[in-house]
UniProtKB/TrEMBL annotation:
The lineage of its organism: Eukaryota, Viridiplantae, Streptophyta, Embryophyta, Tracheophyta. It comes from the Eukaryota. Residues 552-572 are annotated as: Disordered. Residues 561-572 have a biased composition (Basic and acidic residues). InterPro entries: Vps62. This is Vacuolar protein sorting-associated protein 62. Keywords: Signal. Pfam families: Vps62. Residues 1-20 form the signal peptide.
């Protein structure tokens, strides 16, 4: 994966336009007749997304605090509201030029208060949640929640000639001393909202936030969703589900997030609940119909001749077993794994063994323990060569991109309030993408599909050709529905919060490389490839490859799941 990481980073720089961040379409002034256009086409936001099979609290075995609807952050109770009333919509700009809509939570349980409004782009079905809160601190002098003192108007759309329901007014609550605002209030009239509308939160229950996805923007005005800046297994920051509306880019944003001062794992699933979670949500992996390099279990790899090499003793590798893998926590290049040396065996092991494949699961608290992340890892003995599309020709890039021992994963993110699957992360080289559940393909109930790309095994939410490059040229990632595998057969690798209940396999604590270092000279690889390309295309290929940073010329072998930043941290 590593070489390609470099290639892709380079191509990403060239082609950021093509991927990722929704581009903001410029506003077209096509409704200058009046401000309020009530008639509009049906949009995705008009439908409410629900998982194929509804999740109720009886979906989960009883025990512990998982999925008990209310989470106590240590004197401040929060509840995940997910039914809404529409306050406003604008139907231009933002993702797909479809605008965005603002909502207020409804069905707030007795005693709970709103912390802010919710908004999302109109190009997706309504699928949101926002926390509402209740003070249970019994601290009469400094309750955990207080009404704002006042509001300041951050922005309004009254003078804009755009396709909108009516003008809106976005307000920032003025928090009393020692309190912070964790959400905006949005109204569709110019009257200040009542002070009773929302609550500010005592500062020790707040944490610094950062802007995340851009929801909408116009000129210098932007709406982003906010999340805690510090995220990971140990981080206490809680996402509220609110957004920040700001002119310019003040950092940190004026909207804080919450903080769990209780024990972070308190609301995490127990072992039985983890099994149930995998039964309900285990992803189905779809391999490409032309895939040659299948996954396998780690045991299969070891018992089919994988070798353990030691630096300085390259001529006498030993058979790798769970028991002889070094366990010291340094990756110093002193040992590495490789395929069997015998050429026939090597080719056989490269191809993996789908029947033996299981998923390796890591369960961890995220966002202050209000979410459970279930990272589902898959091992492939071999990652095939990268493939480039150069006009109508597809080229295998020889050694470029090839390596032994490939670890890939997808991560499910479930709400600890109710066990509902909210997001899935698809790892693609050293990066990846998050998708809301509303954007996924499901099969057999609530099992999300993911597509493993041909040779490279990057994970994608949908099939087809994903070209990393521009002008129809670049590194190919083909996905399609060949063999598929329900990843429900799993081994629980780790769930640190469960203590000694989970025994980590020894290979997890092998921190050295799972494949040898790959050495090659890019120019030589290019010469080989150019022999089969018509003259006019040589330059094009050279252009694709020449923009690569020099570190791609040498390549360390890949490391195991525990060496990755996302083991303890958030996915990027
Ligand atoms: C499910 O939730 C309802 C209402 O919140 C509660 O009365 C019931 O005891 C819960 N059942 C389980 C199995 O937790
Ligand atoms: C204006 O907002 C209120 C909630 O504050 C909502 O009840 C009402 O439907 C909104 N008006 C329109 C036209 O959307
Ligand atoms: C109430 O909260 C304030 C602010 O955190 C704290 O200083 C004080 O000790 C608390 N009082 C009680 C009785 O817990
Ligand atoms: C962005 C992406 O999916 N890149 C993948 C393209 O294919 C190569 C191998 O052919 C993978 O290593 C990349 O991860």
């Amino acid at each position: 994966m590593g070489v390609i990481v470099g290639i892709l980073c380079a191509l990403f720089l060239l082609a950021t336009q093509a991927i990722g961040v929704p581009e903001l379409a410029p506003l077209k002034n096509h409704h200058s007749e009046g401000n309020f256009v009530q008639k509009r086409e049906a949009l995705a936001i008009d439908t409410i997304f629900k998982l194929p099979v509804p999740i109720t609290n009886s979906s989960w075995p009883q025990g512990g605090n998982f999925a008990s609807e209310i989470i106590d952050l240590g004197g401040l109770q929060v509840y995940e509201a997910s039914t809404f009333m529409n306050v406003w919509g604008v139907y231009q700009g933002g993702a797909d030029d479809q605008g965005f809509s603002v909502f207020e939570p409804t069905g707030i349980p007795r005693g709970f208060s709103m912390l802010g409004s919710y908004c999302q782009p109109n190009n997706k079905p309504l699928f949101g949640w926002i926390l509402v809160a209740k003070d249970v601190s019994a601290n009469t002098s400094s309750p955990t929640l207080k009404q704002p003192l006042d509001y300041t108007l951050v922005w309004n759309s009254a003078s804009l000639k755009i396709n909108q329901d009516m003008p809106i007014y976005i307000w920032l609550p003025t928090a009393p001393d020692g309190y912070k605002a964790v959400g905006h209030v949005v109204t569709n009239t110019s009257d200040k909202p009542s002070l009773d509308k929302v609550r500010c939160v005592r500062s020790d229950f707040t944490d610094q936030s950062e802007t995340n996805d851009l929801i909408w923007g116009l000129d210098d005005f932007h709406v982003y969703d906010v999340r805690p800046s510090n995220r990971g297994i140990q981080a206490a920051g809680v996402r509220v589900g609110t957004f920040v509306a700001q002119t310019g880019s003040p950092n940190p944003p004026s909207i804080a997030c919450l903080k769990n001062i209780n024990a972070i794992p308190k609301y995490m699933p127990n072992l039985e609940q983890i099994k149930a979670i995998l039964k309900v949500y285990s992803p189905t992996m779809c391999l490409h119909p032309d895939e040659e390099y299948f996954p396998s279990s780690v045991d299969w790899f070891f018992s089919n001749g994988a070798l353990l090499y030691k630096k300085g003793e390259e001529s006498s590798p030993v058979q790798a077993t769970e028991d002889n893998l070094p366990q010291d926590p340094n990756n110093d290049g002193a040992y590495w794994l490789d395929l069997p040396a015998d050429p026939t065996e090597k080719e056989r092991v490269k191809k993996g063994d789908l029947k033996s494949t299981i998923s390796y699961v890591h369960v961890k608290p995220m966002l202050g323990g209000t979410f459970t992340d279930v990272a589902v890892w898959v091992f492939y003995p071999f990652n095939g060569p990268a493939r480039a599309k150069v006009e109508f020709i597809t080229l295998k890039l020889g050694k470029i991109g090839e390596h032994v021992g490939d670890w890939e994963h997808v991560t499910l993110r479930l709400s600890n309030f109710n066990g509902e699957l909210k997001h899935v992360f698809f790892s693609q080289h050293s990066k990846g993408i998050w998708l809301d559940s509303s954007q996924l393909e499901f099969q057999s109930g609530n099992k999300p599909l993911y597509y493993s790309s041909l040779n490279g095994h990057a994970s994608y939410p949908h099939g087809g050709l994903h070209l990393v490059g521009k002008n129809d040229m670049g590194i190919r990632n083909d996905t399609g529905k060949g063999d598929s595998l329900d990843m429900g057969a799993f081994q629980l690798l780790a769930a640190e919060y469960l203590g000694s209940a989970v025994v980590e396999p020894r290979w997890l604590n092998y921190f050295k490389e799972w494949g040898p270092k790959v050495n090659y000279i890019i120019a030589d690889e290019l010469k080989l490839l150019e022999k089969i390309l018509p003259g006019s295309l040589k330059k094009v290929l050279e252009n694709i490859v020449n923009k690569l940073p020099s570190e791609v010329l040498r390549q360390e072998g890949p490391t195991g799941p525990k060496e990755k930043d996302n083991w303890n941290g958030d996915e990027r």
